[in-house]
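Entry type: protein chain
Record version: 2
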Amino acid sequence: MGEFFSREARAKGSGASSGARAGIIATPHGRIETPAFVAVGTRAAVKALTPDEVRKAGVSVVLGNTYHLYLEPGERVVAAAGGLGKFMGWSGPTMTDSGGFQAFSLGAGFGKRIPKILPSSSPSLQNSHPNILENVGVSDGGDRGSREESAPLAVVTDEGVLFRSYRDGSEHFFTPERSIAIQHALGADIIFAFDECTSPLAPYEYQKEATARTHRWAKRSLRAHLEARPPRGEEQRTQALFGVVQGGRFEDLRRESARVIGALDFDGFGIGGSFGKEDIETAVGWVNEVLPEDKPRHLLGIGEPEDLFGAVARGCDLFDCVAPTRMARHGSLYTYRGKLNIRNADCVRDHSPIEAGCGCYTCTNFTRSYLAHLFRSGELLAYTLASIHNLFFIASLVRKMREAILAGSFESLRAGFMSVYGQSIKSLDA
């Protein structure tokens, strides 16, 4: 594949920002300038948006979900269309996850509204009131909301994960080899090794067991990936494979996982699993102190502005999350002064844009009053316009981080942003 990842610059200065870096990932469908935000298109679609709208929002790469695309329409259908990008009309780089997150969302987290990220207001969820999870519950990736069935739809074994389809109840067994085969057929530029994403409430002993299982699955995934390459002399496979680091909130497990996964011949690395809101940056720091410097690092499922700054400061290059578009569909919009609930009464007669000076299509053409009207009227256009703004906001913010790293002013950008946005977050948590 030639030089897959090249690092252009590292943040100047010391402290937390010393790990921030800018780079370029070269894929068969274009370059990814990092740090970069990855839009989630679970079922080969970023919800409520066309591929052109996603591109104009400033996004260069999208990620599909292996488990959901396997169930519908099936990897063979996608392969026959020419791969994920062609199937969904996206000409840029693509990624697919492994299905490992569904081991948690359809397993330990199923129907329990346990978030992947523990809220900072909840030091111990075991004894906390369930209302704190009201807006951060886990779904199956399709944003179908919480489910009340008691029986999980995923059971983890040492060999793999037995899934029961949420569509028709049929059973499907995912092994590392099967996940890799499906992802090969889906044809994304970057794919992930099969892993077990654990519950943030899982005790240390289970986290240790699951991390060791993820390491065994990583080796099997890598072996399956390499064995699937065509014979010498034929066209070589161009998909890059990332290994996934696990370990929950425990420093020894995180560092050990980074050592094991980092020593394997992966093209890059994903940092997965569960975190506490207040220790994401710390946990990412543990991992990236160990992982090789010359390969890209993708923080899986993280997308809030304050978390992105922390992850970039600790040396992450890529991030994917459904939060920008999911929040948008619930009327929660990003601004530099904090989140705006467009359903609030004071927005009804507010004829200013969501964010003054924002260059997105929504802010350029429409007002808060109009969006408030759309949401209150149940118009589907509300979802599109709100999603355009949120995706543009996050993509632009990460792009500013990249520019600041190259200019040597990342820490200044972070401090300035958090002095306003961070205070708004604190006031909401108070």
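Comment: The longest helix spans residues 381-407.
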